Amino acid sequence: MNILVLGGGGREHAIAWALAKSPRTDSLYVAPGNGGTDGIAQNVPDLNPEDGQAVLAFVRENAIDFVVIGPEAPLVAGVADVLRAAGVPTFGPDAQGAQLEGSKTFSKKFMDANDIPTARYASFTDLEPALAYVRELGAPIVVKADGLAAGKGVVVADELEDAEDAVRSCFDGAFGDSGKTVLIEECLTGPECSMLAFVSDGKAHCMATAQDHKRAFDGDRGPNTGGMGAYSPVPIVTPDELAAMHDIMERAAVATAREFDNDYRGVLYGGFMLTPEGPKIIEFNARFGDPETQVVLPRLESDLADIMLAVAEGRPDDIDLRWSEQWAVCVVLASEGYPGSYEKGKVILGIDEAEQIEGVTVFHAGTAKNFDDELVTAGGRVLNVVALGDSFDDAREKAYEACDLINFEGKQYRSDIG
Ligand code: AMP
Ligand code: GLY
Fold first, then answer.
1. 212 CA closest ligand 1 atom index
2. Mutate to test the pocket of ligand 2, among 285, 384, 414, 417 (most ligand atoms within 8 A of CB)
3. What is the pLDDT of residues 16-28, one digit of tens each?
4. How many contiguous H segments (helices) and E segments (strands) does the chain have?
């Protein structure tokens, strides 16, 4: 099978890495790809993953049998719709289903209509009523831009003033069109846990639990980022909580089939908070999590190409998920300044040495080759250092040992993942 993966982050490197292991895979392309996918697949740097017609033309020219869409932007842009309409098996929901991630208001309405537990909320398109609502509810309170903001459009405000500032900054255009509608939410408390599920024709196959570290700095301080590290499984989840999470994902999957004409074929990502009243959904995403994927897929023992094709072809009963007993820890190495501005083009050394450690795999995110064919930094999140171990401590120690062996100017990472 010739497979095209759309995207170029650590998640797509992990997906391509798992697909490359499948005996089903003949040729593997990643568009645009990064410095890491370069070694295991053919990168297609000039193909815009959000341009459905361009992707379809590439599929036809290169006899691609199957397309896997990694990030949210091409999903929201309707690339899956274009491909499916042309008869190309595609992993990833259509544009309507992707609104579960693309619009927080849409997602909340979906949750309310299907009895999915979540934080109480109201959404606003004008400043004054939004401010009045914030003052009425009081802090702590959560302010969210409605649309996509690369994980950065949410402010959990402990002080009323911060909440008011967040509302103003959203309406002032801090997130462009994504902030034209603002959601104000009740602040939930409890640990967070992600559960990803393969969803096809109304059935959910839940993956192993994972926990992401969204804040930039140690001790969960600093701004929210795209994710600074992750681990899997999440030991604090009780059997009752796990059962409740499965139930919520299964009910959500049934609802996707009803509301999106069975075109929800991909991953549904449930971002949960384990509140004192039980697990509640903080957000749905319409794709694999990043960096959760980097700790979940290395623990998957079954063939990812088989699974993804079954999802895309609407054969959910053919999906067989088997997980290794090992623990996985991922530490993100970022550029100095991330999630704010940062420099690019710093030479990266030591990845081969790091991968000599048993169980360590380095997935690339923002990397590229320069004119001298050296690997250099090309983004905010640069590398995902993943270690598998027989215990949580074992995996974590190996991951940090590997992080020490990798160097680039301005290397920044959290020392408390897990
Ligand atoms: P989201 O992009 O909606 O997942 O929000 C990003 C992060 O903000 C979440 O992972 C939580 O840490 C936090 N957050 C979002 N909504 C709430 C809420 N209602 N209560 C408390 N924290 C929240
Ligand atoms: N790790 C958070 C996300 O993928 O949205």
1. 10
2. 285
3. 999 999 999 999 9
4. 14, 21
